[in-house]
């Protein structure tokens, strides 16, 4: 097993370093700001230094925490953990000076820390300025440690009490080992890890088979990192896939079930009744000519395909596309906003077995205002089955009961909170009461019921808690006595509610720390690895 390298900064009497030294598989490098002569004559410092050296630790003096890479050779710069207990500029240094010290320290730490390393900073009660401080200081009167660390690419991943009394032999000193020590009562240890770098998403070309030929289209910028992520594939451990598989397994106990996921195209053509054009990601392409990836990324394509948002103001009027001179457009497509039209097409083609629950699932795409529970892309799961006319209500209740049982079963393995699942009539809702998922489904089909989930047992369908819809339709099937029942579930919202994920964007993160919390597809209560992120409220915000 590789040896874990630990760096300690700002040691006063080296008693903290001595308490850590000797742990199996750990190499300690203990440092302080003063010279060896200044430190050795104080208290038990000489004894601690001797013990450290006897146990194979390195002791380095006169180390400036803001220039760490200057003190270590390149091959010895990678530390798995950096400790800095009670940093302080000294004397009557104000809050701003101490913030600056922390800012320089974090930037310096980033140069000598391993990719998955941790930075531990212990502060006196109230200094950090986070909700973990009790009592909490005003933001402007704190060291603003989370915001300062973010400037160097770190996030606060954990915070817990600094219990000096449990550290064997530890004695806290004051600034530069002065007699007056820091007050450690209520002190907190803040643990930071690296945040994901903000990546620039290059223009992306997606190639698919459409009408027996390969075509390419440019992915809208907001969806570049969300196309072809493979969350529902066989080798995926993503919680969205786990929710889908568990639901399918439970429902197969009550209904004959058939999956029909493989033949669904990302692009759809045709008119969706009642759907506002501004809610759709339009893709216009020519099957005659498809530009290369290099041409698209260099912006050299001869206006062959572009997104709806790239049209000039006069391009789209009265439901018609007015193509500028030089364009060769033959057909108009959009990224599928729902799987319900596919389900309807399957019925109309006759590829449908009455009495069988047909299941479709995959990502769908819609333009919407982005909020924690409102998403421009999510995984939809659609159930379709035909029942005898007059029995549709009892069959709907049977389907919903099975969905309820499945969701309850999933939730009980994750959390102790009570989960309430209600079937509520669509007529009882105003449009303003619906989340974006429910509002859009109401445009696509004639919704009769909403499936709502409440974790707080309030009994009301809160905004964001509608996870599914039920609708019925009459088609000319084998028998006119049959009615088709459709049910649509938002798998992303379900996964969020079951696992306690407060923002849909976390489902789409490429940060490996997210999926590590769900080993082998096991559903667990999500534990945020970015605590108390800085947030700002302004009169005007510009998003770039």
From TrEMBL:
Q: Name the gene for this chain.
A: Fdxacb1
- List the Gene3D superfamilies: Bira Bifunctional Protein, Domain 2 (3.30.930.10)
Domain (25S rRNA (uridine-N(3))-methyltransferase BMT5-like): give its ranges. 7-173
Q: What's an example of a GO molecular-function annotation for this chain?
A: ATP binding
Q: Which domain of life is it from?
A: Eukaryota
Species for this entry? Pelecanoides urinatrix
Domain Phenylalanyl-tRNA synthetase residue range list: 218-518
Gene Ontology annotations of biological process type: rRNA base methylation; translation; tRNA aminoacylation
**Can you cite an annotated GO cellular component?**
cytoplasm
A Pfam family found in this protein is tRNA-synt_2d
Keyword Disulfide bond in annotation = no
Query: Could you identify this protein by its name?
Result: FDXA1 protein
Is the Protein biosynthesis keyword given for this protein? yes
Q: Which InterPro entries match?
A: aa-tRNA-synth_II/BPL/LPL (IPR045864), BMT5-like (IPR019446), Phenylalanyl-tRNA_Synthase (IPR002319)
Keywords annotated in UniProt: Aminoacyl-tRNA synthetase, ATP-binding, Ligase, Nucleotide-binding, Protein biosynthesis
């Amino acid at each position: 097993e590789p040896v874990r390298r630990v760096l300690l900064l700002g040691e006063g009497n080296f008693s903290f370093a001595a308490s850590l030294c000797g742990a199996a598989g750990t190499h300690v490098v203990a440092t302080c700001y003063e010279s060896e002569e200044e430190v050795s004559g104080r208290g038990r410092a000489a004894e601690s230094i001797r013990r450290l050296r006897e146990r194979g630790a390195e002791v380095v003096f006169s180390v400036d925490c803001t220039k760490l890479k200057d003190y270590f050779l390149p091959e010895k710069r990678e530390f798995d953990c950096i400790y800095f207990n009670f940093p302080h500029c000294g004397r009557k240094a104000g809050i701003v000076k101490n913030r600056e010290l922390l800012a320089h320290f974090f930037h310096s730490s980033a140069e000598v820390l391993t990719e998955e390393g941790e930075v531990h900073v212990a502060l006196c009660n109230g200094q950090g300025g986070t909700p973990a401080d009790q009592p909490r200081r005003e933001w402007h009167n704190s060291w603003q440690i989370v915001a300062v660390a973010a400037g160097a690419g770190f996030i606060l991943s954990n915070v817990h009490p600094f219990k000096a009394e449990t550290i064997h032999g530890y004695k806290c000193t004051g600034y530069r080992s002065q007699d007056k020590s820091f007050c450690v009562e209520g002190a907190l240890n803040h643990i930071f890890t690296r945040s994901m770098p903000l990546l620039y998403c290059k223009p992306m070309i997606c190639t698919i088979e459409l009408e027996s030929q390969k075509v390419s289209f440019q992915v809208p910028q907001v969806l570049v990192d969300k196309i072809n992520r493979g969350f529902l594939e066989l080798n995926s451990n993503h919680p969205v896939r786990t929710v889908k598989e568990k639901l399918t397994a439970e429902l197969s106990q009550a209904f004959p079930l058939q999956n029909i996921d493989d033949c669904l195209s990302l692009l759809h053509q045709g008119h969706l009744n009642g759907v506002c054009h501004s809610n759709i990601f339009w893709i216009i392409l020519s099957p005659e000519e498809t530009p290369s990836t290099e041409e698209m990324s260099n912006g050299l394509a001869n206006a062959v395909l572009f997104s709806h948002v790239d049209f000039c103001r006069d391009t789209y009027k009265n439901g018609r596309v007015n193509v500028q001179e030089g364009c060769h457009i033959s057909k108009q497509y959009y990224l599928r906003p729902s799987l319900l039209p596919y389900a309807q097409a399957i019925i109309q083609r006759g590829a449908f077995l009455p009495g069988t629950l047909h299941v479709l699932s995959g990502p769908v795409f819609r333009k919407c205002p982005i909020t924690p529970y409102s998403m421009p892309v999510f995984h939809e799961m659609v159930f379709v089955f035909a029942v005898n006319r007059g029995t549709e209500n009892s069959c709907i209740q049977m389907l919903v009961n099975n969905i309820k049982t499945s969701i309850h079963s999933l939730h009980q393995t994750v959390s102790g909170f009570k989960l309430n699942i209600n079937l509520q009539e669509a007529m009882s809702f105003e449009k303003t009461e619906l989340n974006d998922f429910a509002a859009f489904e109401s445009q696509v089909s004639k919704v009769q019921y909403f499936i709502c989930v409440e974790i707080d047992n309030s009994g009301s369908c809160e905004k964001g808690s509608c996870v599914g819809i039920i609708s019925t339709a009459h088609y000319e099937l084998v028998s006119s006595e049959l009615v088709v029942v459709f049910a649509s579930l938002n798998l992303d919202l379900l996964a969020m509610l079951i696992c306690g994920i407060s923002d849909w964007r976390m489902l789409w993160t490429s940060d490996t720390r997210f999926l590590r919390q769900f080993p082998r597809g096991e559903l667990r209560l999500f534990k945020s690895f970015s605590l108390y992120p800085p947030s700002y409220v302004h009169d005007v915000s510009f998003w770039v």
